[in-house]
Amino acid sequence: MSKKDNNEHDPFSSLPPGIALSWGLGKESQRGPKRELTIPQIVAAAVAIADRDGLAAVSMSRVAASLGFTAMSLYRYIPSKEDLLILMQDAICDIPLPEKASYADWRALLRDFAKANKQVFRDHPWFCDVPISGVPITPNNLRFVDWGLSALQHSGLNEAEQISIILLLSSYARSFGILERDFDRAMQAGASPDQFTGQGFTAALQQLVTAERYPHLYPLIMSGVYTGEGHQDDILDDDFEFGIERILDGIEHYLDTKRKGGQSS
What we know:
Elements: H1 3-9, H2 17-22, H3 39-53, H4 60-67, H5 71-74, H6 81-92, H7 106-123, H8 139-149, H9 159-188, H10 193-197, H11 202-208, H12 218-223, H13 235-259
Helix pairs in contact: 3-4, 3-6, 7-9, 7-13, 9-13
GO biological process, one term: negative regulation of DNA-templated transcription
GO molecular function: DNA-binding transcription factor activity; transcription cis-regulatory region binding
DNA-binding region: 59-78
């Protein structure tokens, strides 16, 4: 029997071990001493290390040591570090999600969807360091996606349009998650907020930037807007809120043109 034929009979055979384990499909090893750990315990220990010391600090040996076991003990539960990373990503997405019935309109739900996505990166900064290797297919990740899609169930959009909107909002939240992570790291390294936002360099830029060389940027530099002069300490939050509202405006415009039977521009 070919590999293709085998996959047709067993649709789960193509799943990487970490993803299979996230769905409870992994086969437990019968080798070694009596099983004294659980996969959730191992994953929780790994997440705690990453939250405290960063993703680079996570290794099978360090996770095992934090639990009082050897690294070889962990391999009886989770086949590799790559599989552990998959399980860690899914675990941090297991957060309480509000019921759709609690929302007055689709904008409010999608707004909170984006904020909840950003908060995951805020709570677990190492999440930004995990490369994207494909679409989310673990249970808690998909639960997140399903929640976002619930806002669009009566929108009249087709399936491709709905998932594109979820990707747009998720990507926006991820970009701000990375920005806030980098801001926190800069502060920890001794930078000041004024250095990060550029406020500390306003006077210098006003001397260096000329109207001839930067005709469109020049007015923003001179007014101080470019470096955030006059903004409060929550400038990143202000920028996120402004951006999400403009994205939602765009979605609303697209929905209106669809309902009127016109073409979105």
